[in-house]
Design brief:
Layout (H helix, E strand, L loop, with lengths): L1 E5 L5 E5 L9 E4 L11 H6 L8 H13 L4 E3 L1 H4 L5 H17 L2 E5 L19 H7 L4 E4 L5 E4 L4 H8 L17 H6 L11 H4 L18 H13 L31 E3 L11 E3 L2 E12 L3 E10 L6 E8 L7 E10 L12 E6 L11 H6 L2 H5 L4 H4 L5 H8 L2 H8 L16 H8 L2 H8 L16 H8 L2 H9 L15 H7 L3 H10 L14 H7 L3 H8 L16 H7 L3 H8 L16 H7 L3 H12 L1
Parallel strand pairs: 3-4, 3-5, 5-6
Antiparallel strand pairs: 1-2, 1-4, 6-7, 8-11, 9-10, 10-11, 10-14, 11-12, 12-13
Length: about 625
């Protein structure tokens, strides 16, 4: 740290001090004049700054510090070498700490002739002076003639009046941690800086954040600041901003968006544990209660914050689900809304993991009065009868009768039992999977409480149901879900691959083989393999896929010692017989428990083409 040392002659010079060697010092807070008026680090080195107007600030500060028994003082204009980007970055990241460590801060209000205009000073409008007001242990205000106006504590009511900062902030016993993120942002809302980036950089110390300076990044600096705040805080009030120009997204682009947040406080719900927000490639990942409330997959993400004294009216942001699964949502309203708890109880809605895009919303403005007028019945209900039915069966009806939007809306409602089974043991997920309702499956898999591997009365999982029905896209969705048990067998010990092979679902078979080729040799209750089932049903495309898979045993006999070739021959599937005969290790004359060979089965049923193939293979 570079300081100005006061000599006995009344002059001063620059010295550098480090760590524990830094002596007690005073620090100056002021608003800058034009660059040619202020004394720079270079001026101090060359001794050429004495004729500058700003030199009088140094003279005063040095004299006042000496009168206060201090031999050192710090002034930003000349104690930082601003030609060095590395030094400037270090200084800005250390500024809050330096002001906090000072014995006293002298706040020079150059535009205040007397205490009558104290509150109108430009000093209260600048971004950098915010931390200079808050951080020091003691602040003494001086007017344009260097006459003392009073201390921060003495003038706390006036300071609160012109800054919006509560008086208790200036008490030593009050920690900034007792204020919400939104409240602290609001203190900077009406302050300006010369550089756009400094709107963010001047707040780093207040939030206890260090980050690199990138002049030229514009408003992205404020986005970066909020991202850093997310890393150290789970305070939802960070998202409780409103913007007049409609820009932003999940995060605000300027402190001005928090201008109405002076009384926004975080609420504590001891009954629910929230994971802190996380920044990902898809935006901000955050756990919130979510309420679907309109067409176009729109809803309210309920924040864990409210207006002070109004815990029954939590804030919410209006969003649209772009992915149909809450995995990619977008803030579509530039305002923060309040939820009328007298009409609707948000606690009934489950906590969901949302991914909110950091892009810019479309600037729509939602009318708070619309939400205030909603009755409980309107919130719990939907646009059609199946979403108004408050029974578990409503979800099954919606899957068959409704649009995806209605299904989505129903899934956001409280009381929907997504894992409930019907009389056949079918769940909503297994039913949607068997029907190939891809959108519905995607939405169901995104539900926090969904049980992916529940079976119906036949022991069939949603994956098996989808594989059996040949719903390729649905199978792909289920295979991509890490919770899915890919080889789970039904009551007949048949796997999804076994059923897909039997029904000739070649695209599904290919997916299943790629995901888990161990199923290819799994036997069912009758010791039949997927190849046996495919051969018996003449599924030549599937047989070809299975023959190229690892671990396929071409001549494995079932409980009756019948091979895939035996089954294909008995049913006259000549194309399958030909494929099997060209495979390695095929046993053409292998008999079953009754000593019947594939040839005898084909001959008994009169399949001459198959008989000819087998006779030729037997000779070779």
């Amino acid at each position: 740290m570079r300081l100005l040392q006061i000599h006995e002659s009344g002059t001063f010079s620059l010295v550098e001090k480090f760590g524990d060697d830094i002596p007690p010092y005073a620090i100056l807070s002021h608003t800058w004049g034009t660059p040619d008026e202020e004394v720079s680090f270079r001026d101090m080195q060359t001794g050429s700054g004495e004729n500058k107007r700003g030199y009088r600030k140094l003279l005063f500060c040095g004299k006042q510090a000496a009168d206060d028994g201090l031999r050192y003082f710090w002034v930003d204009t000349c104690c930082i070498d601003k030609t060095s980007s590395a030094e400037l970055s270090e200084a800005i990241n250390s500024m809050y700490m330096w002001y906090g460590a000072a014995e006293v801060c002298y706040a020079y209000l150059a535009d205040v002739p007397s205490n009558r205009t104290f509150q109108n000073s430009r000093w209260f409008e600048r971004g950098w002076t915010l931390q200079e007001l808050i951080a020091p242990m003691e602040v003494i205000f001086f007017d344009e003639k260097w006459e003392p106006l009073g201390t921060r504590l003495e003038l706390s009511k006036s300071v609160q009046g012109c800054t919006g900062i509560p008086e208790r902030v200036f008490l030593e016993s009050t920690s900034l941690d007792s204020f919400s993120v939104a409240q602290k942002m609001s203190w900077a809302a009406n302050r300006g800086t010369t550089r756009v980036e400094d709107r963010a950089y001047c707040l780093m110390g207040i939030f206890g954040i260090n980050m690199p300076l990138i002049y030229g990044e514009g408003e992205n600096s404020f986005i970066r600041l909020q991202e850093e705040v997310m890393r150290i805080s789970d305070d939802h009030s960070l998202f409780a901003w409103s913007s007049q120009d409609g820009r932003g997204g999940c995060l605000a682009t300027t402190p001005l968006s928090f201008r109405d947040c002076a009384n926004v406080v975080q609420t504590n719900h001891l009954d629910t544990l929230y994971d802190p927000p996380v920044l990902s490639s898809r935006g901000v990942q955050i756990e919130l209660r979510f309420m679907g409330c309109g067409p176009g997959r729109r809803g309210l993400a309920i924040l864990n914050c409210c207006e002070q004294g109004s815990a029954d009216k939590p804030f919410a942001i209006y969003v649209q689900d772009l992915s149909r699964s809450l995995m990619q949502i977008e803030r579509i309203c530039r305002d923060t809304l309040t939820i009328p708890v007298r009409n609707i109880d948000p606690s009934r809605y489950s906590v969901r993991k949302l991914h909110i895009r950091t892009g810019r919303p479309n600037g729509q403005k939602a009318d708070q009065r619309i939400f205030d007028r909603l009755s409980s019945q309107e919130w719990q209900g939907g646009s059609t009868f199946w979403t108004r039915i408050d029974t578990p069966q409503a979800l099954f009806k919606a899957l068959d009768l409704a649009t995806e939007v209605d299904v989505w809306l129903l899934l956001t409602r409280p009381g929907v039992r997504i894992n409930m089974k019907d009389i056949s043991g079918q769940t909503a997920l297994s039913y949607a999977s068997s029907k190939g309702y891809e959108g519905a499956v995607r939405m169901l898999l995104a539900q926090r409480d969904i049980e992916v591997n529940l079976t119906n009365n036949l022991g069939q999982t949603p994956l098996l149901c989808a594989a059996k029905a040949g719903m390729t896209a649905t199978v792909n969705l289920l295979l991509d879900d890490l919770r899915t048990e890919r080889s789970k067998k039904d009551t007949e010990r048949r796997t999804p691959l076994s059923w897909a092979a039997a029904h000739g679902r070649s695209a599904v078979v290919e997916l299943l083989l790629h995901a888990d080729n161990t199923q290819v040799s799994m036997e069912d209750v009758n010791k039949r393999t997927p190849l046996s089932w495919a051969a018996a049903h003449g599924r030549s495309a599937v047989v070809e896929l299975l023959l190229h898979a690892d671990n396929t045993q071409v001549s494995m006999g079932d409980i009756n010692k019948r091979t895939p070739l035996s089954w294909a021959a008995a049913h006259g599937h000549s194309a399958v017989v030909e494929l099997l005969l060209h495979a390695d290790n095929t046993q053409v004359s292998m008999g079953d428990v009754n000593n019947r060979t594939p040839l005898s089965w084909a001959a008994a049923h009169g399949y001459s083409a198959v008989v000819e193939l087998l006779l030729h293979a037997d000779k070779t």
